[in-house]
Amino acid sequence: MTDVNSDALQNDPTPSVTPPRINRRRLLLSAAGGLGALAVAGGTGWWARRGEVRGPRLWSSPELGGRVVLTAGAQQGLFASGYDGRVRALDPATGAVRWSRVVEAAPVDGLGPWQLANAGGWPLAVGDGVVCVVSTAGVQVLDAASGEPRWEVAAPDWDEFPWQQEPVVGGGRVYAAHGTSLRCYDAAGGGLCWSSDPGASGVLALAGETVFAAGRYGGLLAFDARSGERRWVQEAVDRTDSPPAVGQGVVHVLHNGATVGSATVFALDAATGRVLWQRGRLPVSGPLSVADGAVCLLSGTRLTVLDAGTGDTRWTAQVPSGLGRGMGSATAADGAVYVGTNDDRLFAFDLVTGRARWRDEPQRLREDTEYTRVFLAADGSAVFRGSRTGLHALGALPSA
Question: Which of 158, 161, 195, 258 is the most exposed place for a label (fewest CB within 10 A)?
């Protein structure tokens, strides 16, 4: 693991519960991070040209990028859905491409190629030895070991953006929502097992014998994963475009709200849909992530961590504003929370204390106006970051 220099650690963001002593040099650097985009627009660009700060880098592949998904563990497999329309299987330890396949797609009225490219890659899910990809052509299932096609189902009535159709795989089944209904397919052969009544969107989560789907016009729905019978609906959630996070019998789901600062996080009983707690007026701009009893939320330059059992704030931390255009991301796993900004920076925090562990910055920060999204996947102390500028692995892979 590469050591992070002491000067870099001194200037890392820290949680608000333990404010650091601010000296003049730190204040100037913090101001530069917050106003970097303005400086670049003014022609100085000095922040973007600063020296790189290296985190614990494992490998980088500038040719790849986009959505990243891990199987059950980082030792088993890493899959990426790229801006170039390909899905790849990668060796998590080296980044070597094991196989690569073009995903079939069909034109959609009113959507240009740039809109499809800005999605960051077709949505995909991995499990039970298969890779499921959803594109404008439909639901396509590949063999996870070889990349060879297994089966494909055309998707009728594409009236939502295809990148909002997030499939899930588990228990020998593939679940995808299209044509306004949630559909369950046999993972081995593609036979239709069941289809729900209209009203489900493609925002899905699977836990045990229950599949959860955001309602097309509001609410969160729970279905029996085997029969398709609706178990409950919780209409208080309202409409959400972020997949729920399910664990230990609780569903955490985010309602983004109509305006900045109006998001609400709900904790629901997974068996009944009953509201356990809700926390409103949160300035959240992206999906939530749950790990080790904590709910992690990112909004612009603020990272907020809530107690998953009560909704109380554990700590907050500031991260620099990205100099690029597009969406950052945060994810939590095994005692750490990672934040990736749209200018190729990555930060790691201790999930319990909020202390900064390390940060990684390239020699030149991304500052162009081409829209990019940041996708993160983590297992143990390893984190994989995908964006328009490539795919990067940092941290340490768990031992076999």
Answer: 258
